[in-house]
Amino acid sequence: MTNITEKQYREAEAKIEELLPLVKEDTPISNPNYIDLKRVSDIVEAYENEHYPIGSPTLREVIELRMFEMKLKQKDLAELLETSASRISEYLNGKRDITIEIARALHKKLNIDSDIILQG
Predict the structure, then answer these.
(1) pLDDT of residue 55
(2) What domains are there in the chain, each with its CATH number?
(3) How far is it, in rounded angstroms, from Cα 45 to Cα 67?
(4) In this model, does residue 1 exceed pLDDT 90?
(5) Angle of helix 85-92 relative to helix 74-81, nearest 10 degrees?
(6) Helix H segments across the chain?
(7) What is the pLDDT of residues 59-118, one digit of tens each?
(8) With contact defined as beta carbons under 8 Å apart, do 96 and 85 qualify?
(9) Which terminus of the chain, N or C, has less C-beta within 10 A?
(10) Alpha carbon 108 to chain centroid distance?
């Protein structure tokens, strides 16, 4: 838990806006503006992590994203994972737990991180 107030957060956001035009990609890390930008960015990050946390995506969300990215329909995904379209529907709707074989296929063929697969 941070002790950063909303007022400090707002001030840090304003300071970032001031500093961004002054700090470029080639600005040395020893530059005072760079150091100040890093400091206020850390304040903003800590406050946002505490007050606006972003959770990890669910397996379903990641599968659906990959399907969208790869332009796959459930039928296409079923063929890719060597299972039936109805089984894919059951997995996506939470009516069936994935098998170890499907978990491996999701990891290898859709490049889904194993941590996401194992979270459910």
Answers:
(1) 82
(2) 6-51 (no CATH), 59-119 (1.10.260.40)
(3) 31
(4) no
(5) 100
(6) 6-19, 32-51, 59-69, 74-81, 85-92, 100-109, 114-119
(7) 999 999 999 999 999 999 999 999 999 999 999 998 999 999 999 999 999 999 998 888
(8) no
(9) N
(10) 19
